[in-house]
């Protein structure tokens, strides 16, 4: 009985051992299996099976092109595998100038791309480890380390003409910092020619904390993420899209003065951001007397310039929307130039300004409640260029009307042949004006080519397309001529306060505009 039990027990152990040995044998066969798979450039890339579902690129590929396209998956003998690693020495010493690395790769092995001709490389966001000497002695001028990387080996990028290193990882990857060839980024450990870019609020972890390894770089700049803010020349910006490098203005420090020139772009280290939006209340009640808007602008937010002292404003051609109250309560504003892509003018956008003449480009489709007008406003002429009338609010209640005043004192100027659509057709909204004048295209063009800009001490006349001012005349409200001349700057210092008519005679026609002193 005793010996029978002993034999049975030994038999079970032998079976277990045999199964274990067989498993090791099968694993060894699987792991030693290699095959080739041709990429899109005709290279015969060699892979080694790592598991039942994954493979690693190995050395031994036959390269028929200087470009390499590593696929995310490969097939062999009816099986499909994910390509998860680039093995040691995979492309070392080749003439590779370009490589596409898929977002399945988690590791790049020792000297995988050492001593090749790469001028740039995009590392996938799936990457976790970069082994020693992986990209040594190439032609890389900049490299971006993905956010999941936690380890960069000895000499991984040494011998490259690097000028920038960007790390997206909030926890600094482990690197080698040494005054020798062991340094992860530079021969001899000299990083003084390399600018480092890191995530916001990580300077301590990367550079200044005790034991920090990312030291010795020429400059260290914290990258901006979407939603981050940044102050440049007294203006505070918020990143709209880090990926697209776009920002909007959200605030202004009045220490910068009353005259503001908003730039088209702002720098942050070597990264340049385009200014495409003025945010809600960004310049509200800042005492501005003059502002220049950037050509990159596409949107002007609610109350962006509410309660200021702007005399005139030019809306760039890329702007499509002027939101509610954007320029309201700029009572000195006597001139606006709307860009030719503005489609929406919001409620109260230009309420309580000093506008007497308004030109609405044909791109405008909607104009909100009390967009123009308000207590004390003296609008006399509205020029609307659209063949299709913009949608406006027409109401007997001034507080619900687009123009917020009695239209019986305002002259409407519209393109020839559009009277029905604007005024007489059933449902037409542009009614109740003092007069309706149809102007030819040439008359509209002349009006738009001439701008009268009100200054503190006079009027500045500007014109486009070679127009020549032959004579100006100023009349008081009763029609009596006050003065005349030929200068493009007209002093108003000797005029009494009041309403005047300015007649301008050019080589191609004559126009009249009202202004207030």
Automatic annotation (TrEMBL):
Q: Which UniProt keywords apply?
A: Signal
**Residues in the signal sequence:** 1-32
Give the SUPFAM superfamilies listed for this entry: L domain-like
Residues passing through the membrane, by range: none
Q: Which NCBIfam families does this UniProt record tie to the protein? A: Por_Secre_tail
Q: Per its record, how is this protein called by name?
A: Leucine-rich repeat protein
């Amino acid at each position: 009985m005793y010996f029978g039990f002993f034999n049975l027990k030994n038999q079970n152990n032998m079976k277990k051992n045999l199964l274990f040995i067989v498993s090791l044998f099968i694993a060894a066969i699987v792991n030693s299996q290699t095959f080739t798979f041709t990429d899109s450039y005709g290279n015969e890339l060699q892979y080694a099976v790592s598991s039942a579902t994954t493979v690693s690129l190995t050395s031994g590929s036959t390269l028929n092109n200087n470009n390499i396209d590593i696929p995310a998956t490969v097939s062999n003998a009816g099986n499909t595998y994910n390509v998860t690693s680039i093995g040691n020495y995979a492309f070392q010493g080749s003439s590779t100038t370009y490589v596409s690395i898929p977002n399945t790769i988690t590791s790049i092995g020792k000297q995988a791309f050492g001593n090749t001709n790469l001028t740039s490389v995009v590392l996938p966001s799936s990457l976790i480890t970069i082994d020693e000497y992986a990209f040594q002695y190439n032609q890389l001028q900049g490299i971006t380390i993905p956010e999941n990387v936690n380890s960069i080996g000895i000499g991984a990028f040494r011998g490259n003409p690097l000028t920038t290193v960007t790390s997206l990882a909030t926890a600094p990857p482990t690197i080698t910092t040494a005054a020798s060839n062991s340094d992860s980024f530079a021969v001899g450990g000299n990083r003084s020619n390399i600018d480092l870019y890191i995530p916001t609020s990580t300077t301590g972890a990367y550079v200044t904390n005790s034991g920090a390894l990312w030291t010795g770089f020429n400059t260290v700049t914290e990258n901006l993420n979407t939603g981050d803010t940044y102050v440049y020349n007294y203006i505070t910006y918020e990143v709209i899209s880090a990926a697209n490098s776009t920002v909007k203005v959200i605030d202004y420090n009045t220490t910068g003065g009353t005259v503001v020139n908003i730039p088209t772009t702002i720098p942050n280290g070597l990264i340049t951001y385009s200014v495409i939006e003025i945010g809600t209340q960004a310049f509200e009640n800042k005492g501005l007397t003059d502002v220049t808007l950037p050509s990159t602008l596409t949107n002007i937010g609610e109350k962006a310039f509410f309660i200021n002292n702007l005399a005139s404003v030019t809306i760039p051609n890329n702007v499509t929307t002027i939101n509610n109250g954007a320029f309201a309560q700029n009572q000195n504003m006597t001139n606006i130039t709307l860009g030719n892509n503005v489609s929406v003018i919001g409620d109260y956008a230009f309420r309580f300004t000093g506008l007497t003449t308004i030109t609405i480009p044909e791109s405008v489709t909607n104009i909100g409640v009390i967009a123009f007008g308000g207590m004390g406003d003296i609008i006399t002429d509205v020029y609307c260029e659209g063949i299709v009338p913009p949608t406006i609010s027409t109401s007997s209640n001034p507080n619900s009307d687009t123009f917020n005043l009695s239209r019986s004192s305002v002259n409407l100027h519209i393109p020839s042949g559009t009277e029905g659509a604007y005024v007489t057709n059933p449902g037409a909204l542009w009614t109740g004006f003092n007069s309706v004048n149809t102007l030819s295209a040439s008359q509209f063009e002349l009006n738009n080519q001439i701008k009268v800009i009100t200054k503190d001490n006079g009027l500045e006349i500007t014109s486009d397309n070679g127009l020549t001012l032959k004579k100006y005349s100023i009349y008081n409200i009763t029609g009596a001529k006050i003065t005349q001349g030929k200068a493009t700057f007209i002093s108003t210092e000797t005029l009494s306060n009041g309403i005047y008519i300015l007649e301008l005679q050019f080589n191609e026609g004559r126009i009249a505009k009202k202004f207030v002193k």
